């Protein structure tokens, strides 16, 4: 589904992604962890062309999205992103947030977009908020809406960049529960998060980044029990003892 080959990214002289090779299969759930500044956000932003790579290739379903003529709107429709700060449209209702992109970008009929939108709102437990505005919702509810919005594009891939790190602690689990529910669907998920319980439960593999490089890739049962090197153990000891 996603194939990164020798991906490099510079910001000026700053080398932030270094020879990244990574294969993600159709429907696979991948959790990316690593210290601040290690390149996690940059890496996933390259996967839907929010950032351009300096060199290397990124194949999605066999199509190289780093090519200049790659169809950016089609790519982003198929590879949705959920951000730390939700990024809902403040002046649109919850349902309008869910229907805007399917109608505009994919040409879905309004009635159809609303029908599937309501189904996803029901799935995340917020059907009763369809006509509310984002400011009338809690942070956890807004993030669940952002996830439903991504789903309503019927993407093959959803990228999550620290989806729970802007939330009050009591709201984290409700968002993780929605993501766990989502993991039952055949959607490829790439999740930057430090929620290790979620990683253990959902991830097919955990990718550890440091200094712009992938330092370790392993399924959770190996990642947490077998030696992955000093950088991984020192990072894990920090986040697990917070
Ligand atoms: N637009 C930009 N211009 C210049 N440098 C950038 C830009 N975005 C990120 N960087 C730099 O690239 C490096 C990787 O940043 P990135 O945001 O990908 O890290 P991260 O692993 O997501 O960190 P965090 O855990 O803090 O979110 C950092 O050194 C950062 O300062
Ligand atoms: Mg980041």
Q: What's the layout of helices and strands?
A:
Layout: E1 2-11, E2 14-24, E3 29-33, H1 40-47, E4 55-60, E5 63-64, H2 72-78, E6 79-82, H3 94-106, H4 110-123, H5 139-151, E7 157-161, H6 169-182, E8 188-192, H7 196-202, E9 205-210, E10 213-218, H8 220-223, H9 230-240
Parallel strand pairs: 3-8, 3-9, 6-7, 7-8
Antiparallel strand pairs: 1-2, 1-4, 4-5, 9-10
Describe this structure in words.
The chain is an alpha/beta fold. The chain has helices spanning 40-47, 72-78, 94-106, 110-123, 139-151, 169-182, 196-202, 220-223, 230-240; strands spanning 2-11, 14-24, 29-33, 55-60, 63-64, 79-82, 157-161, 188-192, 205-210, 213-218. Helix content is 38%, strand content 25%. The strands form two sheets. The protein has a six-stranded mixed sheet with strand order 6-7-8-3-9-10, sandwiched between helices. α3 (94-106) packs across α4, α3 runs parallel beside α5 (139-151) and α5 packs parallel to α6 (169-182). The longest helix is centred in the middle third of the chain and has 14 residues, at 110-123. The two termini are 35 Å apart. The chain binds adenosine-5'-triphosphate and magnesium ion. Adenosine-5'-triphosphate is lined by residues 11, 14, 16, 34, 36-42.
